[in-house]
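Format notes (please read before filing issues)

Several people have asked whether sequences and structure tokens are stored in separate files. They are not. Every record keeps both together, in the order shown below: the sequence lines, then the token lines. Line labels are part of the format and must not be stripped during preprocessing.
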Amino acid sequence: MLPAHMLDFHLHLTEKLDLNTIHNYCVNVGNDLDPITDLRTRMSFGRPNWEAELAKIRDQAHAMRATASAEQRKGKLRIAVFYCGPGPLASAIDAACNALDSNQVEFSFFKEHF
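Then the structure lines:
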């Protein structure tokens, strides 16, 4: 069985929303599912600070790793980041991954083209 956070989605909406969508979001914001995506993961609005977002993921992974066995804690912590979208955004995410690489953590960035 996979750990609860083996695959974690972080969704960011940067486009303008129409008035009906904003109203729907406000009315349904207290539900278990996000009103826009119908996922348990909540939508974030606006352009994210990628380095800060990836640092949060790194910190969560460190906390989960602290409870693992000694054998599972050997070597670098490896975090894979998967992306599909415009090139300039890919460059920003890749730069944030590179900035957070260290002796203890390795970020691997994978960009998909459709």
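For reference, the curators noted about this record: Helices lie at 19-28, 50-66, 87-100. The first strand starts at residue 11 and ends at 13.
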